[in-house]
Structures are given as structure tokens and as C-alpha cells.
Sequence to fold (130 residues):
Amino acid sequence: MQKFVFEFIKENNGNEIYFNPPLTIEYSIYKKIDEETGKENYPEDIPVMAYATFDFGLEVHIPLDIDHNWLINGYNGLTKESSFDDILMNTIIFDLFHAFCHIPEDPNYSHYNWALKGWLKERATVKELY
Fold:
């Protein structure tokens, strides 16, 4: 199990979020087929998947391949050559900014975004640049 600890995150557009206490996210990254055993790690037809748990208990599954994660095409500098850890980290960063910096009426605002904002609103300070 690996983890990210975020005290501060920033998007390329200048938006910032500070967390007090810091936000901790534990995660594991798996390929669909375990290279050592040949066994299937998960049922979805996705080549690489991350399983992450936020410190308040929310669990998410995030695809890390270019066909299932559109953020790889440039968000915060992501490319198809980016490491799986970088893709996961920047996907979570995108999700956090989406939760805090978009209106809930946005058709792409999901229960996941709502949960992130609800659980973190007391410990997050958001600075948006327009």
C-alpha cells in the first residue's frame, strides 16, 4: 500500500486547495492480469486500475490507461508516458478541484464530487483564480 499526503494542491490554471489537517490517501495499483500468477485482479475490462481510500473512508477505483482516463491527454502535464502514480495523483487532484470549484448543477458533478466536498469542506481552504 502506498499513499499520498496532500497539504496543498495546485492546478496549472493557478487554483489552489490547502488541507488542514493534511489529506491522506492510501492506494494500490494493479494490472488486470497479475504478471506472476496469471490471475485476474478485478472484473472490469481495464488494463490498469488504482484502488484508493481517502482518510475519511471513501473508496474509489480509478482507471489509469489512456483509453479510460481522458485526463492523460494533458491535465497538469499528464501524457501517456506518465507514471501510473502521477496519473492517479493528478486524477485525484482533478477530482478535488472539480468537487470544490464547480457548481453542483454541472452535469459532470457526481455523487463522488459531492462526497469529497462534503467530507472535506471543514478542512479545505480553496483559492480560485478567475
Summary: The first strand starts at residue 2 and ends at 10. The CA atoms of residues 64 and 84 lie 6 Å apart. The radius of gyration is 15 Å. Residues 84-101 form the longest helix (18 residues).
